[in-house]
Amino acid sequence: MRLSLATRIFLGYAAVLVTFGAVSLFAVQVMQQNQLEHRLVSQGYLPLVQEMAALETFQVNQGGDLERMLSEQSVETRRALVRLARLYNAALMDQQLGSARTRARDIRTFAPESEQAFLAELESRLGELSRRHGEFAAAADRLFTALESSAPEPPRLTAQGETLQGLSRALATDLRKAKLQVEGRIRDRVDAAEARARRTGAAIIGLSLLATLVGLAATALSARTLRPVKTLMENVSRIGRGDYPDEVGVQGEDDISLLTREVNQMARRLREREAQLRAQQEALLRAEQLAAVGRVTAQVAHEVRNPLSSIGLNVELLDEAVARARFDTPGDAAEARTMLGAITREVDRLAAVTEQYLSMARPQRPGPLQAEDVGTVVDEVLALGRAELAQAGVEVRVALEHGPARALADEQGLKQVLHNLLRNCREAMPSGGMVDIRTRADAEAVEISVQDTGSGMAPEVQARIFEPFFTTRERGTGLGLSVSQQVLQAHGGALLCQSAPGQGTTFTLRLRRA
Question: What SS3 state is found at 150?
């Protein structure tokens, strides 16, 4: 089976990674084991040895105190020693034995399986010592009772003292043996850890040498496999300089040959791409020419707006003069006023068209963004436009979110967008209809949706509604939605549209929440 170039290189370096990974895993495993051994000794056995040494010392001191009581001749002094012994000795010994047993149980929670049997035996041994200390404490209590009497019986006192001292020495001996047993266990663990460290060091050195050899072999194999690539690189360099050969001179059926065919195909595609770039360059040149025409159009619109203002003013003056003038017949007066009204309407329409062209030509820069209550803005826009909508047979329903929904916006720019959308809704429903205005706020944005019940839009029309100069109305300029989108984008928001034929249209204004 012929292996591909990528497969051969991958297998070589995979072998290197696996070898070094094995070394790393082995080292980590040994480190974890050493860490467990260190914890077992430092947090387990050493504190336990210290507690058992304290127990042994305490028991030896108890024996010394007992001898002092037996040899004391003063009754008051003997009674004071007995009270101290009853108050402290038994309680402290029980407490320390219980602490040692608890320590042994705690060690079993993190000790390895090999230590469980030893710890179980040690815990059982400490329990036996606790039981024997209880017998010792009971015998000591009887002796203390005899010592507290005013005239103790010497023979009986001597026998009880010898028995109690024997129990004390036996307890101290057993405690010493238990301590020595734990100390021996510590030495065994330390010796085993040292031996394991020596074996681990030798194993890591051997595995590292093996990983190095595997890496060198993989490097040599990769260099041999990639040697034909140099020839291919020279030919690719020729292609980079614009020289597109028909064939690159490397033959065969391996990965290099496949790469050669791809390079040949790339050369063909580059030739085609250059042809496309030349065509796009020509298209870009035409687009620049159209942009220049747009700038000229903006200039013309700007120049036309000033005479239109003068014409409008003169028409108003003429209308006032006509109102004072005398005509031969009332029909002549009505005809003059009708003509003046038509001139006024056309002047207003041309002024609106030139203003839209100028809005499209200049960048949309909103005023200072402030926290605006979108519900208040909607109410103010409807206060101006509701009568016009009602006259066109359009009913408006408003559903504002409970509580103020404040967005970062320029009030005038937002009102301009809403006016444009309401005008579009009115024109989309020439026979009347319904407009629903809703507001919604989340943690990051405030949305205003304007939905009409018009005929909707086909997908191909919806895809172009934000293009400048695109319109489906005879007297439209195709700038209203384009300018509205620019206003929303200048706010850091967005203007979205959802529509389907026969299902109406919904525009959504999305603004940043204040």
Answer: coil
477 touches 409 (CB < 8 A): no
Residue type at position 52: M
Torsion of the alpha carbons at 201, 204, 206 and 211, rounded to the nearest 10: -160
Q: What is the pLDDT of residues 74-122, one digit of tens each?
A: 666 766 766 776 666 667 777 777 788 888 888 888 888 888 888 888 8
264 with 213, same domain?
no
Phi-psi region of 407 (alpha: psi -120 to 50; beta: other; left: phi over 0): beta
How many angstroms separate the CA atoms of 375 and 381, rounded? 10
362, 384, 415: which is the final residue of a domain?
362
pLDDT in tens, 135-173: 777 777 777 676 666 555 666 667 767 777 777 778 778
Give pLDDT tens digits for 53-81: 887 787 777 777 677 776 666 666 766 76
Rg of the chain over CA atoms, in angstroms?
Answer: 51
Q: How many domains does the chain have?
A: 3
DSSP tally for the chain: helices H, then strands E: 13, 7
Query: What is the domain extent for residue 391?
Result: 364-512
How far is 202 from 209, CA to CA, in rounded Å?
11
Tokens coding 170: 């036996």
The length of the chain in residues reads 514
On the CB side of 152, CA atoms within 13 Å amount to: 25
Task: Tell me the CA end-to-end span of the chain in Å, nearest whole number.
Answer: 67
Give the contacts of 500 (CB within 8 A, at least 6 positions apart): 456, 457
Q: What is the pLDDT of residue 506?
A: 92
Single-letter code of the amino acid located at 367: G
Question: What is the 3-class SS of 78-121, one letter each residue?
Answer: HHHHHHHHHHHHHHHHHHHHHHHHHHHHHHHHHCCHHHHHHHHH
* Residue where one domain finishes, among candidates 362, 397, 414: 362
* Tokens linked to 363: 């960048």
Query: Percentage of residues in the chain with pLDDT exceeding 70?
Result: 77
Yes or no: say if 415 and 493 are a contact pair by the CB < 8 Å rule: no
> Do 493 and 445 form a contact (C-beta atoms < 8 A)?
yes
For residue 295, count CB atoms less than 10 angstroms from its CB and return exposed for 0-12, middle for 13-18, buried for 19 or more.
exposed
Report the alpha-carbon distance of residue 391 to residue 386 in Å, rounded: 9
Residue 476 has a pLDDT of 65
pTM: 0.38
What tokens does 117 get? 């049997």
Bridge partners of 396, per DSSP, are 435
Residues 87 and 191 in one domain: yes
Residue 290 binned pLDDT confidence (cut-offs 50, 70, 90)? very low
Highest mean pLDDT: which range of 64-68, 372-376, 402-406: 372-376
Lookup result for tokens 């490397």? 250
Here the tokens at position 46 are 């050493």
